[in-house]
Amino acid sequence: MVKRGGTAVEDLQSEIWRMQLQSDIAGLLNLLRHKSANVRARAALALQVMGANAAIPSLQMALMDETDPSTRRLFIAVLDDLFQLALENDAELPPYQHHPIVSLIDQLSGQSHEQIIRAAQQIGERGAKIAAETLVRVFENTELPSRVRLTAAEALLKLDCAPVEVSLLAALRHPEFQVRRSAAGVLGQLKAAWAVDALIAVLTDPHDSVRRMAQAALQRIGTPEALAATGSSEPSFPPPPALHVPPVEEEDTRPAPPLPDDVS
Length: 264
Fold this sequence. Notes:
Elements: E1 2-3, E2 6-7, H1 8-21, H2 25-31, H3 37-50, H4 56-65, H5 69-89, H6 101-108, H7 113-126, H8 132-139, H9 146-158, H10 164-171, H11 177-189, H12 196-202, H13 208-221, H14 224-230
Antiparallel strand pairs: 1-2
Helix pairs in contact: 1-3, 2-3, 3-5, 4-5, 5-6, 6-7, 7-9, 8-9, 9-10, 10-11, 11-13, 12-13, 13-14
């Protein structure tokens, strides 16, 4: 589509300049999802020039979804620059050591499952909370194998940034057996396929009730791996517990007995 002042993309480039001058971070973040790779790249560059550290989470998500190779490289460069700025301004963030955190985030969106696992492990070991949202994205991706999602969950626990469902993983290792048993039961109710390996480990728990709950949870999850661990061939779908309804007492219609005479 052609407009009087130029193409729609050219008009958007002028709009990007306006957003940059007005520090319109939200507007630039919206353009990271634009259908034009050129617009996405220019929006990212504007965020870089602004030093918009607040844009880091959205840029991470955009990097995970970006398919254009040159735009991916640009996102990585912009993130690297913003990360360096964030590290300079926040003494609590860990140093990069030997590998930039941004390159590990890039690996989380790769095709190799082993690469994703290694990247998640390194992010957890380095305590890079700045990458937590990207790890959550990996954990929530149900198309990934359970072992990959479990590694992302373990990393989130190390970062102390775990969503509620991931917190159940930590509860499986609680010193009180009642907590471990309850966590296994809830994971079974949620049919948390990502937690199969963790539940299999609980089959060796020293407390019998925890082991039985873990076995029941695996049977309810019902994946081939879970069933193989329990020696079952079919998933278990236990019926809901019957509600206990107390019997209705019949009304006593007999006349009340006479009161005894007062004792003087």
